[in-house]
Amino acid sequence: MAALASLATVLGAGASIYGTVRQAQSQQATAKAQAQLTQQQQAARQQELAAQQAEQARERQQALARTLAATRARLAASGLQPDEGSAAAVTGGLRQDAAAAQAADDAAYQARLAQGRASLLQPDGTLTALLRSGRTFGFAARSLLD
């Protein structure tokens, strides 16, 4: 009878380990699918942000070109040479302001990209399931020795 109880304990432990391993495999497959979905969502978000950034840069360049053309026209209408002296300083200042605004937008774009990235430390549960199965096996071995 004791041998039958030992055999039942071993079979129970084996079934428990098998169930734990299957659960770990299922969790791993789910984690893999979630990681792929997260990567796809992240890629779509990056493409969207890149398109927005390109559109904003294009709009800023067009606005700068219009502002420079209007400023040069006013300066020329006033009798000043638009490429010399203080007129050149004004147009240069406009270009510097536009470059600074573009740099600020670029920094904000990089921060928005970094904000949505998934952590490399996200748990997938495989180690936990493996440790649980080892503990189950340990309990079975202990009950056999008792």
User: Are there runs of 5+ residues with pLDDT below 50, and where?
Assistant: none
Q: Could you give the order of the helices and strands? A: HHH
Which range best describes the helical content: under 10%, 10-25%, 25-40%, 40-55%, 55-70% or over 70%? over 70%
Total separate domains: 1
Mean pLDDT comes to: 79
The percentage of residues in β strands lies in under 5%
Give the helix tally.
Answer: 3
Radius of gyration: 33 Å
Total count of strands? 0
User: How far do the termini sit from each other?
Assistant: 15 Å
Largest sheet descriptor: none
Give the overall form. Answer: rod-shaped
**How does the helix and strand content classify structurally?**
mainly alpha
Which features would summarize this protein structure in a list?
single chain, 146 residues, mainly alpha, 3 helices, 87% helix, 0% strand, rod-shaped
In terms of topology, how is this protein built?
Layout: H1 2-77, H2 85-115, H3 126-145
Helix pairs in contact: 1-2, 1-3
Structural overview:
The two termini are 15 Å apart. The protein is built from three helices and no strands. The model has no long low-confidence stretch (mean pLDDT 79). Helices cover 87% and strands 0% of the residues. It has 146 residues and is mainly α. Helix 1 packs antiparallel against helix 2 (85-115) and helix 1 (2-77) packs antiparallel against helix 3. The protein has one domain. Keywords: Coiled coil. Residues 21-74 form a coiled coil.
